[in-house]
Give the backbone structure.
Amino acid sequence: MSKGYLTLRRREALHGYMFILPWFIGMLLFFAAPLVESFIYSLSEVKSTGQGFQVLINGVDNGKGLWDNYRHMLLADANFPQQLAITARDTAAAVIVITMFSLFTAVMLHAGFKGRNLYRAVFFFPVIMATGVIYLLIQEGLAGGETLSSTNFSDAGNAFMFKVTSIRDIMIRGGVSAGFVEFVTTLVNLIFSFVSKSGVQILLFLSGLAKIPQSHYEAAKMEGANSWESFWKITFPVISPIIFLNVVYTMLDSFITYGTEKFGNVTLYAIQQMGFGKVMRFDYAAAMSWVYTAMIIMFVLAAYILIGRPSSKVTE
């Protein structure tokens, strides 16, 4: 091929760079400065004065060590490392369950049967119900009444909007042990959370399944392969990049979803309370945010090593 032409792979790479270029421009214009400022806060002591905030760099403007906030957080703070562990555990469980559920549902919905489009809309309906506008409308409609306490609409975020206190009350009155009651109610709440977070993943899987040529399955069937073998030999390798995409999407969605002190993303709640709650320690909250960001990066890198790199080799 002459030098004046680009190969197909290079053209695809160029299109990819052009697609993410607006994000890089927006990052540089709107997020780069706050990002650097938050890192400076994490290495400083931020005090509130009558004229605003006073930033004292640790080890330069005061007698503290430069990494005192991080050292105290990881070695002296008894709560934050535990909150990080809880968030990591819950995120790993959510990624596994949501990805498997989305893949299974997409494979079922991809099959040819009457009313398939209706079933697809039904599975995506919880995502619409959990969006911000409808959530605010529900909150405004129920605020101040007894219905709010009976259905227990929570301010924790979209994923934990519904709390089934009625089931808990019925089982407690029936003499069921408190541990089993807590297990059942938590499971019911998580089921709604997982289903409400699976709509986008199901659509992505459906788009990947639609691109698989039907001739592949026909050839496998002529060779005597059953549905199970066709799935592992054809479907799974072809949609493995979509699996990686859904894993990363689910992971980041779980990491940025707000929670409460006991439910949902407890780490993000702790950071918000430290920076904008009663304590108002912006320096320590910034340090917590950077440690939390480092954990997210490690999760994404682990997903790339375990899933992303093998899937890219399969599709080459």
Summary: The chain has 14 helices and two strands. Strands lie at 44-49, 52-57.
